[in-house]
Amino acid sequence: MNAQAQPLDSIAGFAALLRDHGLKVGVSEQLAMVTAALRVPVERSARLDAAWRAIACHDARDWRRWPDLFERYWYPERTKGSARMSGQTRPARNLQQLVKSLHDGMDSGAPSTRPGNADTALQTPAAEPDQPDDSGLSRAQGGATRADALHDRSLSMWLPQDLAQLERLAERIAQALRKRLTRRWHDSPTGRRLDVRRTLRASLRTGGLPLHPVWRSARRERPRLFILVDVSRSMETHAQLFLRIARAFVTAMDARVFVFHTRLAEVTPLLRSDSAAVQEKINAVTAGFGGGTRIATSVADFHAVHARAQLTRHARVWVLSDGFDADEPDQLADALARVRGRGARITWFHPSEHAPASQAMQAVAAHGNLVERLLRLNSLRDLAAVAEHLR
Amino acid sequence: MTEAELRESLYRAGYIADEGLATTLWLAGELQRPLLVEGDAGVGKTALASALARAQGRTLVRLQCHEGLDLSQAAYEWNYGRQLLAIRLHETQADRVKETDLFARDYLLERPLLQAISSEQPCVLLIDEIDRADEAFEAFLLEVLADYQITVPELGTLHARHIPQVVLTSNGTRELSDALRRRCLYHYLEYPTLAREIAIVRATLPQAESALVEQAVAFVQRLRREDLGKTPGVAETLDWVRALHRLAFKALPDDPHALMATLACLLKTREDRFQLGVDRVRQLIEGRRTVGVAEKAPQPS
Fold first, then answer.
1. Which of A19, A45, A47 to mutate to test binding with chain B, by most B CBs within 10 Å of its CB?
2. Per-residue pLDDT for B92 more than 90?
3. Which residue does chain B place closest to A50, by CA atoms?
4. What are chain A's domains?
């Protein structure tokens, strides 16, 4: 880990803690916290307490909770009878060192941007505190394109006709996903099979005489759809669109939606209700970005814990990600192979112009048929274009 | 201006800010973000803005919010009388008046928001008691606070020449919208601590005896912990000490009867007056707060 990575990690972790406790700390607040840390002289770093409090608190309730949260994170040794806050190994946190290394990072010029290092996402505002607006361009990582019309387009900025179009599209795709037999039957030489339970049930209306026999018929069901949305920092600008699309599929065909960055979490219940508070909640779930993307771990978690019983040949797994993975390159292929081994079909959607070419994705491609299709998805138009490929 | 200098100049302007508040004010200036100050009535929210203006040598533009406050009172209004007059004048002079002439800056009456935006010198804009204005006005404020601009349909968008330092105050009578809160830095002003309140009173009333100031402030601090309908603020403390000083008290008298008349400075409702009888005041003077069975009553001499 480089010297600059730590302070930004610490601030991101602190913001995540605040979000966990109900404070509304979004990206803009987090950037303001970094900016404040840069403006405060090193020797007065203790004043960050008051500065961050003004940024992160939005009402009297937040205000009263602050001292406790601040102490717990930055000075855990002062909190009596406290345990560690999580099972993860805790990096050393020291406000003064944090401010000092932030300042050093700024003095030594812009740090080099390395693709795959998620923490670089936050380094741009650190390096250019005066130009927070055009930081998006230089934040681009790897192959993911950033200069896009959707940049910074919040959920509330979707026009009603966009939403209606998206709903129609999702409905059409849901219809197009072919219904499949739930069981494969052998042909019976004796003809149709009696459904005894239903026949008995139907006999009630004729006083127990089974006058209306019910025959078994093959059942066809739509495939079960799982959508995994990458909400790591590198996908920040696209996550809004992807979550919107995922929401449409939750409505249209009861899809299950998961978000992941370094951990995986299910957000289906949140997506079922459409309200302004939902984005806040999703933000809270996706807390801790800047810690990188661990696609392989997330897919393995999805396979082993969240959807184990439902991953059959009826399952369709859509991964919406740029493919930049902080795990070992081979792990992603292994994790996907296990999902594929259960019969689920995997489709990978990427926001970039070309198919993702990260090491992990190359390993996946080397496997041959792990991922059924790699499709570009960067706008509603793309979704309409790929609709016919989704079966 | 660094944070320490700001604190110092606030002190010279007669406002004693603690470190946290000074840092927040400094940060609001650095980030050019509005500052939302909440707190009970009388803790010095409004005084903070005027002291800030004095400290920075800027003019204070104040917008007092109230129910039914609308654009014409807050931002701008066309001067209809002058427009009509101009039309009549031009009628007599035979040259035609164009419509665009009538909707020029000359005919625009600037109200506080527009004043602050179009001010030649940087200023401090105080939006007082924002919770009293209705939600529609709050929504309008978002444009002003986010981009420091006001759109006048006839003229176009007017951008701020200098970004004003904005202070919003709220007493919490209505919940403010998240959108507004997130655009602002936030500070909750508590009642000042004993030491700070003594310093405030000393700074404002240097002529009062220090024993009197200390005892009176300690009395008010104890009084605030009582279950009162209207808790006395700093302004009330100042009033009371001023009154006691005028009455030539050198220290708080032991006999509460002498004080009862002056308590009008501190207690502003009938219920509170009723609650604080002579005995209770005596207990407060002596520094005992709770009344219980175990408590010793003063021995009759």
1. A47
2. no
3. B20
4. 5-138 (no CATH), 155-176+220-389 (3.40.50.410), 186-217 (no CATH)
